[in-house]
Each structure stands twice: as structure tokens, then as C-alpha cells.
Specification:
The complex is a heterodimer of chains A (156) and B (272).
Chain A (H helix, E strand, L loop, with lengths): L3 E7 L2 E7 L5 H9 L17 E4 L2 E4 L12 E3 L12 H8 L9 H14 L5 H7 L11 H10 L5
Parallel strand pairs in A: 1-5
Antiparallel strand pairs in A: 1-2, 3-4, 3-5
Chain B lengths: L3 E5 L2 H9 L4 E3 L6 H6 L7 E5 L7 E2 L4 E5 L4 H5 L8 H5 L4 H6 L2 H4 L8 H8 L3 E6 L2 E6 H6 L8 E8 L7 E7 L7 E8 L2 E2 L2 E2 L3 E5 L6 E2 L1 H7 L6 H10 L14 H16 L4
Parallel strand pairs in B: 1-3, 2-3
Antiparallel strand pairs in B: 4-5, 5-8, 6-7, 6-8, 9-10, 10-13, 11-12, 13-14
Helix pairs in contact in B: 9-10, 10-11
The chains are: A alpha+beta (156), B alpha+beta (272).
Chain lengths: 156, 272
Amino acid sequence: MSKIPLQFRHNGRDVAIFVDGGTNLLVALRELIGDMTPKFGCGQGGCGTCSVLIDGELHLSCLTLAETVAGRAVETLDGMKQGPNLHPLQRAFADHFAAQCGYCTPGMLMAATALLRRNPKPTLEEIKVGLDGNLCRCTGYTGIFEAIQACAVGAK
Amino acid sequence: MAVTVKTFSSASEAAGALSSDRSARYLGGGTLVMRALNEGDVTISTVVRAHDQALTRIDASGPRVTLGAGVTFARILAERDLAFLHAPARSIGGPAVRNMGTVGGNLFAPNPYGDFTVALLALDATVAVQGGFGARDIPIEEFLQARDRQAGTLVLSVSCTRPASNEAFHYRKIARIKPKGGSVITLAAHLPVSGGRIAGARIALGSMAPTQIRARAAERALEGRALDAATIAAAASAAAEGTSPSDNALGSAWYRREIVGVHLRRLLSGQE
């Protein structure tokens, strides 16, 4: 079966790859582009660790047909780093003990980014709803919620 | 296994491709079809898509509301005119799933999913489909009864009449993880009141049968009566009649039959 050419913006950079029919965006990002920040968790839309932003909207990359992002902008956690420095949200996750095993963290950070862009000053309840699609089996979520609250506009 | 992806600019071309290929599936938001592909479902060899703006149109200005099959739950939640559908839309998935999942796809979502369809069934929606023989409108109940045989047809849109008042429409999803978990049971009730009495009661249940179904015995208990405690009790005791729930990891068939009346009573009496 022939490969399909695909071009899109990946963290502000144009990329061009060839994908097999039916390839999901997660596989395209990890195996063809080498961006290992989105993780494979369940493949069913249940865990959220493959979360990415497509044209600024939170999507699950494992349930996105790679071809559908042609010409669109895909943002992953890899685009969040600022040289040797952590992004303020990453710093807050570290400071508030919001990661233990860290497997859910890329998805948590992308969901938090989507939330804070839409709502820069979320309440605790809004944070819980915004992260509703992301599972963490280690932290009990409290540290994650506190880290995001610390990054809200007006937080100390 | 690689699949062939066919992308069309119009829904009718996509419908043609679906009707001519038994192993083709239409890809909407991806939450069902991509999941199947990720799980290695070899029965899908072709994926059909359409970039047709008609599929993502919302017409919510009048008393009759039409939602294109490709309208996502996030868009419904952003539409003030669709406030009566916000509770069912909000009960689905997390934010990412609501950005992806569509009204049309939800019609095909098997248990324990398909909650939005429960609301549409209670609202007596009409499903517009296009098959090899052209387009037609099907009552949602008929559509669901024949859902397994709908391969080869493309859902274009769903339409329903806006409930007469906010108080006339009730929705409740029982899940172990709130609000996004798979449904233990889902209930929706449309109870228009005319002259103090219920006229045209419709109660729909999710996860109480292989597809979403109406609780006809409970509807009969409500029809023509005032919505008082005695009527609600009669409807609640009839709620499980005619249902055929299954066991799954979220609950047993026995448990579902036990709780459906309890939750119908709470739904109709406005309890949290």
C-alpha cells in the first residue's frame, strides 16, 4: 500500500512525512518525527496521556487520523520547553510534586495549557473539569491541581 | 494493518463510497473508528471521510433544531441556543473527547457509551441518512433498532424539536467516575405538560438494552396525569419493564434493573 505524504506545523516548525493509511497522529509524532513527549497509554481515549493541541484545541493524538492534521498546527509538550529552562507550568509541576512516575505528565501539561489559554484564571472546579480526561494513578491529583492554580493569572 | 483512506469533498460522494464497500467505515471524530483501528479491528479495510460543511452546520435559531452529524460536543456546549442539550453533551468524555466526538458518531456508540443519543431519543429526534438509494429521514427509534444494519449509510444530520420549557426535559447519567465515566445507566425524559397534565411523555434509557430504548411502561404511567408523587412512583416501578440490560464491568444486569426505577424517580422529582 502506498504511503501518503503529509505536511503540518509541529511546534511552530513545518514538517513533511510519509504515513501509512490509518496511521494515528501519536505514531506519526513518535515514530516518524521523533517527538517522544506524547505517550501511548490506552489507545482508546480513556487516559489522556497522548493529548496534543491541534490548532490550539485539545485532542487525543492516538484517536486522530494523522492525515487529518494536514496544514494544521500541532503542539506537543516538546514545544513547551524554553531552552534549558522549564516552562512556568513545568516548574510549578515540579514544585508542587505533581508528578511521580511522570507518565501522565505530558497529557496533564497539554490539558492544563489548553485550559489556561481559554481561562487564565480557573477555579479549582474548572481545573478539575479541564483535566477530566486525564488519568493519574500516582499523585491523587492534588499536586497537579495546586500546580495549575499556582500558574493561574493573579496567583502568587 | 494499513487501511485505505478515502476523502471526499461532499457527503453524497462519501455516502456512495460507503454503500459500495462493506468493509468501509465513516470516520467522524475518530473516537470510535480510530479506537477500533488501534485495537487491530481487521474488519475495517477502508476509512471514508468527507469535508462537507453541511455536516458541521448547527441550525438552532428556530423551534426545530438541526445538528450536522459532524458537530462536536464542544460546539454544542459553546452554543447558547442549545442549552437544553448541554447536560448530555457535558456528560461525555473529557475536554479532548468533547472536542473530537460528534453527534453522528454517538448514534453508533455501543454500551456503555452513546449518552447523547439517549437525550435525542427522548426528544423524538429524526435522523437524516444518505445511502445508495438517496437521502431520507428516519425516526431515531427506528434508526436505533436497525443500527447494526446501518453500515453503508451515512448519517447527515439529526434534528429535534426544542422542548417546550426547561422543566419539560430531564437528563441524568449514572457513572462511577463523574462525570465522564462510562454509563451504568443513562436516563432522559421529555414530559410536555398541557393543562396541568403530561401529554406526549417520552422516556429514554441507555445501557438498559443492546441499544438505547424507550421505557414505554413508564411513559404510559405518566401519560395524561399530573406529575405528582403518586404518578412518579408508578412510573418508577414500571421503569425496568421491557428492558434487557447486560452485565459489564460497570454493573450487572440485576443491578441496572434495581436502580433504574430509583434514578427515574429522582430524575422526575428533581432530586440531585
